[in-house]
Every structure is written in structure tokens, then in C-alpha cells.
Write a structure and sequence with these properties.
Layout (H helix, E strand, L loop, with lengths): L2 E10 L6 H12 L3 E9 L3 E10 L1 H12 L4 E8 L17
Antiparallel strand pairs: 1-3, 1-4, 2-3
Length: 97
């Protein structure tokens, strides 16, 4: 049975790049879950990620176990989720060119 889950992930981000996030998203992409929403926030030395998925719990657990093996993952957990956040647009600045 397909249920909704929130995977919470904290990544170490020592160099300020996107590589840890890309590695984590590649693991999620290989899992048999349907991604419904992702929220990401960067701070000085960590990236906090909430990934809202639908799927069977065994697959969500598989994804979390694989994520936990990545060297830049500080913490990973999942919980059943009842609501998926609605899309929101944030205007952080303007890009020229």
C-alpha cells in the first residue's frame, strides 16, 4: 500500500557546494518512491533537506539505509506524513545574463 512519508536529511556541507545534495538526490532517484516535494535549506556547514515521498515503507527504509551510507550524511530519518507542502516561490535576487 502506498503511503506518504517525509524523509529528513542533514548533510555536511564543508565546501558550500551542491555535491552532497546531488549525491543524496541520486540515491532517492534510484529508490522505488514517488517524490512529491523537496525543501532544502543551506546554512554555514550543513544542508537540511525534507523529501516528501509516496511509496511502501520498505522502499522508504531502503532509501534511508542507502542515504545513511553516504559520507556527507550526518543524520537521516523518516516519518509518516499527512501533508505535503504546497509549492512556494521565493525571490532571492535577480540573475542577469
Amino acid at each position: 500500500m502506498m503511503n506518504s512519508y517525509r524523509i529528513n536529511l542533514t548533510l555536511l556541507n564543508m565546501d558550500g557546494g551542491l555535491d552532497p545534495l546531488v549525491r543524496a538526490l541520486n540515491v532517492v532517484r534510484r529508490g522505488k518512491v514517488n517524490v512529491k516535494a523537496i525543501t532544502v535549506s543551506f546554512n554555514r556547514d550543513a544542508v537540511n533537506v525534507d523529501i516528501y515521498v509516496e511509496g511502501v515503507e520498505d522502499e522508504v527504509n531502503w532509501v534511508c539505509n542507502k542515504l545513511n551510507k553516504l559520507y556527507d550524511v550526518a543524520n537521516v530519518s523518516y516519518t509518516a506524513s499527512i501533508s505535503i507542502p504546497k509549492a512556494q516561490a521565493l525571490l532571492m535576487g535577480e540573475r542577469n545574463g
